[in-house]
Amino acid sequence: MSARTKARKRALDMLYGADVRDQPIHVILTAEAARAAHEPAREASWLYAREIVDGVFDHAAEIDEQLETYAQGWTLARMPVVDRAILRIGVWEMLFNPQVPVAVAIDEAVEAAKQFSTDDSAGFVNGLLGKIAQANAVS
């Protein structure tokens, strides 16, 4: 598993945890930073995970607007928490991180959905991120 894939998993854990526990993201980030300080082997994944979480937080309104606009028949509240976190990471990578190709962002999100969510989630994530990519003309 690549360092970036591990970082996405860490970011997913943080976003999911903040959502489920209804905690501010800075509380989760502080706890993860303390953990990362004691695990130097995980430093590479920590740095990108932090970048993801900060990016999702900084662009939350735009990301959620994209999800609400293109998720036909689904509100954010209706989406499973893990799917919502995966989608937020995917949208941030596609729209706000030019270092990640759109195809990679979508593929990583689909793989995360296969691994951590329901049987139907991978198709939902793929379709929704594809619509957002097309609508925003990112490639």
Description:
- There is one protein chain.
- This protein has seven helices and no strands.
- With 139 residues, it is mainly alpha-helical.
- The protein has a single domain (3-137), classed as N-utilizing Substance Protein B Homolog, Chain A (Orthogonal Bundle), CATH 1.10.940.10.
- The longest helix has 19 residues, at 3-21.
- The protein is globular and about 45 Å long.
- It starts with a helix and ends with a helix.
- The model has no long low-confidence stretch (mean pLDDT 92).
- One of its GO terms (cellular component) is cytosol.
- This is Transcription antitermination protein NusB.
- Involved in transcription antitermination. Required for transcription of ribosomal RNA (rRNA) genes. Binds specifically to the boxA antiterminator sequence of the ribosomal RNA (rrn) operons.
CATH class: Mainly Alpha
N→C terminal distance = 24 Å
Q: What's the structural domain tally?
A: 1
**Major sheet description:** none
Radius of gyration, whole Å: 14 Å
* Proportion of strand residues: under 5%
Mean of residue pLDDT values? 92
Task: Describe the protein's topology.
Layout (H helix, E strand, L loop, with lengths): L2 H19 L3 H13 L5 H16 L1 H11 L10 H16 L5 H15 L4 H15 L4
Helix pairs in contact: 1-2, 1-3, 1-5, 2-3, 3-5, 4-5, 5-6, 5-7, 6-7
